[in-house]
Design a protein that fits this description.
Length: 124
């Protein structure tokens, strides 16, 4: 799977990092992890799970019958765990860079002619 991961895939993998979950549990967990910004529909979830399974990142952990309905539990594979760690580290570094640069904006100076020239690559 190429990175960066799309947010739904990242959140599905993140939810499964806590342990095996069934589809409806994943829908609820992704909604919670995204603080309500992302609410997966079943078709989107199962399409994503199929792609993640095809790429070896998740697998079916077990199947149960609950109230007469089949329920599949999915879990992360070792490859899924590795990818989630890699992507989390990449995102952490990006957040740290943005945070550092934003912290420098607190002490912004007025844009003078010489500072403008330096920022534009000219000679001050």
């Amino acid at each position: 799977m190429k990175t960066p991961l799309q947010e739904p895939a990242f959140l599905i993998l993140t939810a499964l990092a806590a342990g095996p979950m069934h589809g409806y549990g994943l829908i609820l967990e992704v909604t919670e992890l995204s603080q309500g910004r992302l609410s997966l529909r079943p078709g989107t979830l199962y399409g994503s799970l199929d792609r993640l399974a095809d790429e070896g990142l998740v697998t079916v952990d077990r199947k149960e019958i609950v109230d007469g309905r089949a329920r599949k539990y999915y879990r992360l594979t070792d490859e899924g765990t590795t990818l989630l760690r890699t992507e989390t580290d990449r995102m952490r570094r990006a957040v740290e860079a943005a945070t550092s640069r934003l912290a420098g904006r607190g002490a912004t100076q007025p844009l003078t002619a010489s500072r403008s020239a330096r920022l534009a690559g000219g000679v001050a």
